[in-house]
């Protein structure tokens, strides 16, 4: 009887441990086919150093808490396997797999992690290994191709939409004109920034401008639109992706790069939100502030989407099923069968086609002037943020799962 | 029969509308003594322009939603009444009060708002007015004196504690050494930054350093402590108040002030977190990032403390009761009668003693080395973050109350 090993890799999400939960539950449920369910500590990098644990050791309270614990419970890594599949590191890995009698290898992660699954599944042929390699998608960026969406995006989108709404309510309390610029994660794909549109409650509501990295950002046009918007509204919310750039491809945040230094001459790196805050202040002389939503976007449990958490667990359990059925070199993908009512099934896609590709927001879903998203995007994204999780609490805070 | 008018002023909190809810419910319940319950739009400043509304107009759904709506529902202002009580603006105000047949004036706010209550209650004598002026405390900073704590603090503290914990879980996923600096609101009082200590789950847990503005910040000592901490831990979380300063009183954020400019020569203003991020990078050459928790600290509803929300409503209803009993020139205060079980009663304090004072974290509650808070603080703060609200939801987001 072979064993299963699962790892987590890349930047975490609010539901990356829900996928782990799905893998563990499904893995342990197949005791007739799977011996041990192991977890790599710090992904493939930690595994190379001999770091792993037996996940049957987790008590039921910890298992439940995994579903509402952000960060990678098993630890993560950012480690790229060599392109050359004859590199000795592969021999080392397959030797270690053999030692642990691994038959099923599951990896929860984004683009780079799918690259790992792809390489290992191809190296398996060289090493005449029968191990089955399956990828479980994960990224708040929602930029994996061949899947309707990615676990992690829904919760991040919910955090963004709720925060944009709340910051709007906070900022609109005063009569004086003001601009609040909210910087949202997503360097190359604007999915998460687009989610800010979900916060609108009525026609003409904030945010008045939403800028994605899929289209070029024009600073002069931006200032003109702010001036225009003040004709009908006093408190303006603008949402920008961290990766917005000008027509030549220069990131807007790079406009701060060369001259920003502190009193000791240290170079100051700031985001595009802070840069645009200064630009608006300088050009319009009005009250302006910027807010970088930052890490909370990908780790807030209070705003976790229950739909997202359930789908993340489903992706994990589906990966186990796929491996048991003999699949390898595949990633679990989501297929949406209906928008209303929202319905979803899992499928499998060739991981080699997925890794190192990026899915961007379709240009048809961005308004022609490049400052907003369309109704199609809202129809796509709204089902993904539904439902609030039941959070186990302790001392007034979520009772997160800890690996000591 | 006289009417009641209520206003909101200063920066909002996650429960400022819970206090408004308390005022409205209690006000409408006393229809034998109170005619109309009015709300000033944009505080005393908007009222001077004739802006107010009849709060009986709110439907029950909106009333309920107020309890989980951030921002000042009635709009806010930052407006300081003249020191000279013979200034014509007072005559104008009392004329308008007379027009609306106001008998009870309630003002929900912090320090500056209590200054407004103080001045109006004293001006009432000059104008031979019998209007009763009562203040309802509100501030995430928790810096009002003569009250155990302030509505708004508990929810902000809960947001800070949960976020610090979640950012810690997110950051600790990697094996490499890293420092994450979290900048928290509170320029002069460190209550909210101290709340980061609530996030610790075991001895030696992050945050490893907590810096409040009550004590001087030494940059060299800070760097030495970071180096020392790496001897036992790879992922370090440091929490700093936005208002930390050196021994001469110079704000740490001011170290970035003079030389930070963007490519157009615009002055870049950043916080102390960003400055310390650059300092650590320059001096230690390790992975470091900074996170400014920013506006979400005071407007996140998902992390609202139910205890805080209930106490905020209680402060509002107590203010109505006090006014009906003939009190004036008073602020509702909280008296803690027991820590375990946590018990609280409302009292009244002279608003003239409260305004323009600041309550700081007692030095006895800060460790001698100035880098942490004591068990006494935890005992004080923990009851204030308990309980999660039931949030009316719509389309996957809180169904916030809107004033159109």
Automatic annotation (TrEMBL), chains A, B:
Annotated site location: Important for catalytic activity: 138
GO biological process: what's one of them?
fructose 6-phosphate metabolic process
- A single Pfam family it belongs to is PFK
Q: Which residues form the Phosphofructokinase domain?
A: 4-322
Give yes or no: UniProt keyword Iron-sulfur: no
* EC number(s) from the headed UniProt entry: 2.7.1.90
Compartment(s) where it occurs, according to its Swiss-Prot or TrEMBL record: Cytoplasm
Give the binding site residues for substrate: 139-141, 185-187, 242
Q: Which reaction does it catalyse?
A: beta-D-fructose 6-phosphate + diphosphate = beta-D-fructose 1,6-bisphosphate + phosphate + H(+)
Its main localization is: cytoplasm
Entry binding sites for diphosphate: 11
Q: Kindly identify the residues recorded as the active site.
A: 141
Role this protein plays: Catalyzes the phosphorylation of D-fructose 6-phosphate, the first committing step of glycolysis. Uses inorganic phosphate (PPi) as phosphoryl donor instead of ATP like common ATP-dependent phosphofructokinases (ATP-PFKs), which renders the reaction reversible, and can thus function both in glycolysis and gluconeogenesis. Consistently, PPi-PFK can replace the enzymes of both the forward (ATP-PFK) and reverse (fructose-bisphosphatase (FBPase)) reactions.
- The protein, known as: Pyrophosphate--fructose 6-phosphate 1-phosphotransferase
Q: What is the scientific name of the source organism?
A: Fusicatenibacter faecihominis
